[in-house]
Design a protein that fits this description.
This protein has 103 residues and is mostly helical. Helices cover 56% and strands 10% of the residues. The chain has a two-stranded antiparallel ribbon with strand order 1-2. The longest helix is centred in the N-terminal third of the chain and has 46 residues. It is rod-shaped.
Length: 103
């Protein structure tokens, strides 16, 4: 009987470990999938902006309220982007959300 109980405890602990590992992998995979979906959505929005002949995005600058053609970097920020400036941060958010004013 003692061997049977030890075997049951052993199997139960291994099954619990396997279940815990599965749950961790599942959460990680779900998180990665959501990140990938978000990156795809942002890229699709940024790529849909109208461009000039040189491939620069035709946007209206929130900071200076002027029409501008600007290259977008790998994070889809305009070349005129200035870190920590509220208007520039808002512009980048608008580009990512696909609601930036264009011309």
């Amino acid at each position: 009987m003692a061997d049977r109980r030890r075997l049951e405890r052993f199997l139960r602990s291994k099954l619990e470990q396997a279940g815990t590992q599965y749950a961790e992998v599942r959460r990680s995979a779900d998180g990665q999938l959501e990140e990938a979906r978000e990156a795809y959505r942002v890229a699709r929005n940024a790529r849909s902006l109208p461009t000039d002949d040189a491939g620069r995005a035709k946007i209206v600058c929130r900071r200076f309220a002027e029409k501008r053609a600007a290259k977008l970097d790998e994070e889809f920020r305009p070349a005129c982007y200035e870190a920590d400036h509220p208007d520039c941060e808002g512009c980048v958010e608008d580009v990512h959300e696909g609601r930036i004013e264009t011309w």
